[in-house]
Design a protein that fits this description.
Radius of gyration: 19 Å
Largest sheet: 7 strands, antiparallel
Number of strands: 12
Distance between the termini: 29 Å
Bound molecules: fe (iii) ion
Helix content: 10-25%
Strand content: 25-35%
């Protein structure tokens, strides 16, 4: 099978969070969907190795915070490219604790769901947790981020020929693009890294030494020049 075909499936982008023994953790997840209307129920598919998986297994509850298109990459990276075993992902964040005891993100989110897990299905490397929605709320106006938007626009890897190629990429740059070898994020000098205060037009060589990949936090030294 051509794995490219699977890229045609559409998803959203969420932070799925849970709690265990008074500790909180969350992770970015795209595989979340509604499975039933009566009762209102959703399913989320998580990797068995992840700490959030461990927490949900134990507490049988999770929340899903719906990320908006405005979410900066470092915020996504905090939940997407680090393990809660190494850092407290909620430290310093404006989160609220809902009726299930699991944390709900407020920053950059349009809405949230609170879920009590009632079923689960083994899916090889992953587990599908299925549960009833016991709470929900709108947090802010905004466009929920799709997984495609995250990949194509946020991470800057949209091909020039794509219909969703964004305007600020149109300004051709004579200076080279650089790719993060850890996560495939591409630094485009024409775009810069506005979320980290790097103005458009900044060459990779001119980035501050302490600049890191906005997606995964990798150091400058982990980047390789993109050959056109
Ligand atoms: Fe990276």
């Amino acid at each position: 099978m051509d794995a490219e075909i699977l890229h045609q499936l559409g998803y959203g982008l969420y932070v799925v969070s849970s709690s265990m023994d008074g500790r909180y953790n969350g992770q970015v997840a795209n595989a979340l969907m509604q499975v039933c209307a009566e009762p209102a129920a959703v399913a989320v598919c998580l990797n068995k190795k992840n700490l959030t998986h461990e927490y949900i297994r134990s507490s049988r509850v999770f929340t899903a915070s719906v990320l908006s298109e405005e979410t900066p990459l470092p915020f996504i990276a905090r939940f997407g490219f680090r393990s809660g075993r190494d850092v407290d992902k909620f430290e310093g964040l404006d989160a609220m604790i809902g009726s299930t005891g699991a944390p709900i993100l407020k920053d950059f989110c349009t809405a949230y769901l609170e879920v009590e897990v009632e079923r689960e299905a083994d899916a090889w490397t992953h587990t599908v947790f299925i549960g009833r929605v016991v709470g929900a709320g709108i947090l802010a106006e905004g466009v929920p981020m799709s997984y495609a938007f995250y990949h194509d626009v946020k991470r800057g890897v949209t091909p020039r020929t794509a219909p969703n190629y964004v305007k600020h990429h149109e300004k051709e740059s004579e200076v080279s693009k650089y790719e993060c070898t850890m996560c495939d994020y591409i630094y485009d000098p024409a775009v810069g890294d506005p979320d980290s205060g790097v103005a458009p037009g900044t060459a990779f060589e001119d980035l501050p030494d302490d600049w890191g990949c906005p997606v995964c936090g990798a150091a400058k030294s982990e980047f390789e020049k993109v050959e056109d």
